[in-house]
Each structure stands twice: as structure tokens, then as C-alpha cells.
Specification:
The chain is of the alpha+beta class. It has helices at 27-36, 45-48, 55-60, 101-115, 130-135, and strands at 2-3, 17-21, 62-67, 74-81, 86-92, 120-124, 139-144, 155-161. β3 and β4 (74-81) form a beta hairpin.
């Protein structure tokens, strides 16, 4: 898939972005993106400190990456689990924040979910990302309680309708 996005500041303009299925060779880059994300700084850091996106995970799930077409530079990725339907992971590289990559990934996710016959996708959101998910059409359905020691804070639970 090749999609155009508009530049909204913060880095070089992106005339096009390619979304492709992740391969086992992407595992280290995806792991690095998760572990270094500014979204998980401070008290959220413990959740991703030892996190690993391994080749086995990529082969088992529908993982898609957004890359620059000429350089294959990683801009973001998401993982869709089909049963039960859930957005398992979604990250946008810090340098690509504000460029529309997240919205592009959600649009792609909707297409994948529709092709799989899904009518909605559950999202358990990182608390600071709830506003983004609501802006792309997800609606809050509840709160998932903290589960120490893995997750020390409550998380918003949302549902993204698939049209």
C-alpha cells in the first residue's frame, strides 16, 4: 500500500509512505522503536523496558510497518490480533510524530479488519494515547484495572468500529 500524507511540521515532509507486512528481519527495529518511545518515559518506562517484538510474534500476528519507500526507514507499526479482535501494539517513531503516520496506520488496520470480516477492534490504550484513538473514531467502553507488576496503572478500553 502506498499512501500520501501531508506534512504538519516536525521533520522532513513525507510525500508518500509505504505500509507493508512486517518480516522476521524487522524484529530488532520494532523492538527498538517500542523500547525507545518517548511515550513510555518516566513512570511508564518499566512497561517496555524488557519488551521484545520477536520474529515468532511477527510470524504469528498481522504486523504491518509504515516505512519511507526509498529508504525503508521505519516510521511506525501496528499489530492486529484477530481472535479476539484487538489492536495489540501500535507505535509511531518519535521523529515521525505529527506527520499523520498514526492515522495512516489506523486506516490500514481498518482495511485489514474489514477483509478479515471483523466489525470492531478492541483497543486497550496507553493512557496518553486515548485522545488519539478517540480522534480516529474509537469510543471508550471502560477501564482495564492495573495488573502489577506488569502494568501499574489503569488503562482506557476502547472499541474501534470497522465500517
Amino acid at each position: 500500500m502506498k499512501s500520501s500524507i501531508t506534512h504538519r511540521g516536525g521533520g522532513a515532509p513525507r510525500e508518500s509512505v509505504r505500509i507493508r507486512r512486517a518480516t522476521a528481519r524487522d524484529a530488532k527495529r520494532l523492538t527498538r522503536l517500542v523500547r525507545t518511545s518517548r511515550a513510555y518515559e518516566g513512570h511508564y518506562a518499566a512497561m517496555v523496558a524488557g519488551y521484545r517484538v520477536g520474529p515468532d510474534y511477527i510470524e504469528t500476528h498481522r504486523v504491518f510497518v509504515a516505512v519511507e519507500p526509498d529508504t525503508d526507514r521505519l516510521l511506525g507499526f501496528y499489530s492486529l490480533v484477530l481472535a479476539p479482535p484487538e489492536l495489540d501494539l501500535m507505535f509511531v517513531a518519535d521523529a515521525a510524530q505529527g506527520l499523520g503516520i498514526g492515522r495512516l496506520l489506523v486506516g490500514h488496520l481498518r482495511g485489514e479488519a474489514e477483509r478479515a470480516g471483523l466489525t470492531a477492534v478492541r483497543i486497550v490504550s496507553h493512557p496518553p494515547a486515548e485522545g488519539f484513538y478517540r480522534s480516529v473514531g474509537a469510543r471508550r467502553t471502560g477501564t482495564l484495572a492495573a495488573d502489577p507488576p506488569a502494568v501499574m496503572w489503569d488503562r482506557p478500553e476502547l472499541l474501534l468500529p470497522i465500517d
